């Protein structure tokens, strides 16, 4: 059920970037009110012809896909295809998303996702991710990834920003936490956050990391594009 997620979303109030920041960004990527209206109509028409995609996506969501695609129609089509196809092909991550479900509530008690209500001066949204429970029996890395996806879905519906900037605070994390970040898990997480979701990332900052987390960071860098790997800071 997504109803719980809807209830959860409405409690969060995000301030968009300033008008000046948005206008500057739109100018950089060539978006105007006219081009946005035209391209949204093109995307709607295209989606109606794709039997595996929904045909009732609202204009505001399509506008955000265009913005996150830097005003590229073809990139927006690709992102829309990935985003909606994943809901059918990766059910364990995109179904049963009620935040009041016991497994979801458990993760909310062992890991924190704290998003700043205001953007940076560049218009980016900052989220801090932190574990704060030493009991490894309660730590479920896949549930953590699932909640992260739910958070970004909520941002897509409720928020407008240029990019996302994520701070991972590993203070208090143990070797047992580190062991959960296997290469298959890391590959899956990166695919979900970078390929399936439309948002763009300004950077990933790792703070208070014990030395054994450095190898995880290095593995992640190796799995990222050269552009994104340069946006990882320890």
Automatic annotation (TrEMBL):
<feature type="domain" description="CRAL-TRIO">
    <location>
        <begin position="166"/>
        <end position="234"/>
    </location>
</feature>
<dbReference type="GO" id="GO:0016020">
    <property type="term" value="C:membrane"/>
</dbReference>
<dbReference type="InterPro" id="IPR036865">
    <property type="entry name" value="CRAL-TRIO_dom_sf"/>
</dbReference>
<dbReference type="Pfam" id="PF00650">
    <property type="entry name" value="CRAL_TRIO"/>
</dbReference>
<dbReference type="InterPro" id="IPR036273">
    <property type="entry name" value="CRAL/TRIO_N_dom_sf"/>
</dbReference>
<dbReference type="InterPro" id="IPR001251">
    <property type="entry name" value="CRAL-TRIO_dom"/>
</dbReference>
<protein>
    <recommendedName>
        <fullName>CRAL-TRIO domain-containing protein</fullName>
    </recommendedName>
</protein>
<dbReference type="GO" id="GO:1902936">
    <property type="term" value="F:phosphatidylinositol bisphosphate binding"/>
</dbReference>
